[in-house]
């Protein structure tokens, strides 16, 4: 690897402008000015707003009565419960849908409802509400259907259900099309004409708010009884899983749900959640967004990706301890198989892209397909391709009758809008700005691919094509004391809309290393020094630096400050994101 102004992935560094009010804001909050700078970068200049951000409270949650359709839906559900009508919760097969379904199923069981759930098979039925499933539910005696994390674009299936006498309540958060389904009521955070303060509520968040309103309606008061209150507190664990896994912005009440849900997971008495944590080796551990996104979420998703999501819902809706452990172990095994399959497909997709030049500069999106690709993992493969090529990607599992695809986007490019422009080539599609699913006739794959690439190529700028590393502040190693980093970590959980803080320290001396560590040797360890201060840095996937930095004495490093505890001692550690030197 050649030396000289080297950057790990040819990243463009974008350093936030210094904030003149850092000192004053820092004094108000009793934090280091570096923390104040990063709060400013998140739009939190006001001491009150910044203080609320660092110390989120459940009282910051918006009243569910503000959520479009929630009051009416709760009244309809309460009447159905009272009349003993059969209620079916129709949930999506991802983590957001699974956890939202678990929330509504639990509260309806609490109040004695005749309730069941249904989740479509990802490969056989595809995303969302389908007419065949509606017919089956009706034949099984369903009288009220409540969707979770799906349905807002299912105009025809809902019309079919209503025509057959099935009452329908839609709860969803996906993008709203030109025509709404003719449901009895739609519960949605961003319906036209609605005034809900958080348009980015996840599907599980919508289900949580509806459950809250159902509890109020059943109790006959805005103040619920102690049993219902405890249920809602416990339900934040499920809402947190869905919110974080669905990659909605972790701001406002999403941040509140994520924070309280994560803190509650560690000590949860829920049999299914305990089995899930045990299978992942996380029993008793302090959990953060990483554990949801990369450890727990993939296990729950594995059920729907490799088989049927109904198993995951069974684990979270009343299975015995023995059965929950059995399911959790199965999900662990399925997740291992999922990783193997997705790695194989990713390698095949990359070979296809490279050999056909599908990543050329004039093609600002990637669409690839193959009849042998497992439809359950193509969304993950699409995410990997976005990371590798820095442009939107759609991966399609080609079928004889129906082909299904999954797409992921980049910041500033609305996937749903792009698909709308290509709708004439699709059987159906749904999703939001950053992720979407499509169904199409195999014979139209090529024309759809070209139409989507053409749209992207005319709407994505040169600047958007260059991967950016957003750096919050320039600092000195000495600034990053234990107390400062501890306060920085109060900004967690990190995710979309609230990225983990990244700082830039220039002119660090290479004291020791870097050396390769770990079984694969792709991780490096390095000790950095500056003006008497020193810090260990760790870089995953940076193994080549071990040779590239031989003879280099001074580097500029961009990293996430973290606290690392080893053998009872906690120190500040730099999680490297990029390294440069002259």
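Sequence proposed for the structure above (582 residues):
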């Amino acid at each position: 690897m050649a030396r000289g102004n080297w950057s790990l992935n040819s990243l463009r560094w974008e350093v936030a402008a210094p904030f003149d009010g850092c000192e004053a804001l820092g004094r108000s909050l009793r934090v280091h000015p570096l923390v104040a700078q990063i709060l400013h970068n998140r739009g939190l200049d006001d001491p009150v707003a910044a203080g609320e951000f660092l110390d989120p409270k459940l009282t910051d949650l918006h009243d569910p009565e503000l959520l479009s359709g929630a009051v009416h839906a709760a009244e309809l559900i309460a009447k159905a419960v009272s009349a003993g009508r059969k209620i079916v919760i129709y949930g999506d097969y991802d983590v957001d849908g699974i956890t939202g379904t678990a929330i509504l199923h639990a509260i309806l069981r609490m109040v004695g409802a005749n309730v069941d759930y249904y989740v479509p098979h990802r490969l056989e039925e595809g995303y969302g509400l389908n007419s065949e499933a509606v017919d089956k539910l009706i034949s099984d005696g369903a009288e009220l259907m409540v969707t979770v994390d799906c349905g807002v674009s299912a105009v025809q299936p809902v019309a079919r259900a209503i025509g057959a006498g099935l009452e329908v309540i839609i709860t969803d958060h996906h993008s709203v099309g030109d025509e709404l389904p003719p449901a009895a009521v739609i519960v949605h955070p961003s319906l036209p004409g609605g005034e809900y303060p958080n348009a980015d509520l996840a599907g599980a968040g919508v289900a949580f708010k509806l459950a809250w309103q159902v509890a109020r309606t059943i109790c006959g008061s805005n103040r619920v009884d102690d049993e219902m209150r405890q249920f809602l507190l416990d339900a934040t664990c499920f809402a947190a899983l869905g919110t974080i896994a669905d990659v909605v912005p972790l701001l406002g009440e999403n941040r509140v749900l994520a924070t309280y849900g994560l803190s509650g997971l560690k000590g949860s008495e829920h049999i299914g959640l305990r089995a899930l944590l045990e299978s992942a080796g996380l029993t008793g551990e302090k959990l953060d967004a990483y554990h949801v996104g990369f450890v727990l979420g993939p296990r729950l998703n594995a059920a729907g990706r490799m088989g049927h999501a109904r198993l995951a819902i069974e684990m979270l809706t009343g299975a015995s301890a023995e059965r929950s452990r059995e399911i959790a172990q199965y999900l662990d095994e399925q997740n291992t198989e999922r990783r193997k399959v997705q790695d194989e497909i990713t390698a095949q997709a990359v070979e296809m892209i490279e050999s056909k030049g599908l990543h050329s500069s004039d093609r600002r999106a990637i669409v690839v397909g193959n009849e042998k690709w497992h439809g359950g993992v193509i969304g993950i493969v699409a995410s990997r391709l976005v990371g590798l090529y820095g442009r939107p990607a759609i991966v399609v599992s080609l079928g004889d009758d129906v082909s299904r695809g999954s797409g992921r986007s980049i910041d500033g490019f609305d996937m749903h809008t792009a698909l709308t422009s290509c709708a004439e080539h699709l059987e159906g599609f749904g999703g939001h700005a950053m992720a979407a699913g499509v169904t199409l006739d195999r014979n139209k794959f090529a024309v759809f691919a070209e139409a989507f690439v053409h749209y992207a190529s005319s709407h994505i700028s040169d600047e958007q094509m260059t991967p950016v590393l957003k750096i919050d502040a320039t600092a000195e190693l000495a600034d990053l004391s234990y107390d400062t980093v501890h306060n920085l970590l109060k900004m967690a959980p990190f995710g979309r809309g609230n990225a983990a803080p990244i700082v830039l320290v220039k002119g660090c001396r290479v004291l020791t290393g870097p050396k390769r560590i770990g079984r694969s040797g792709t991780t490096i360890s390095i000790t950095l020094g500056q003006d008497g201060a020193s810090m260990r840095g760790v870089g995953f996937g940076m193994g080549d630096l071990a040779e590239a930095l031989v003879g280099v004495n001074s580097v500029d490093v961009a990293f996430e400050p973290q606290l690392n505890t080893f053998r009872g001692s906690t120190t500040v550690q730099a999680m490297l994101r990029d390294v440069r030197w002259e």
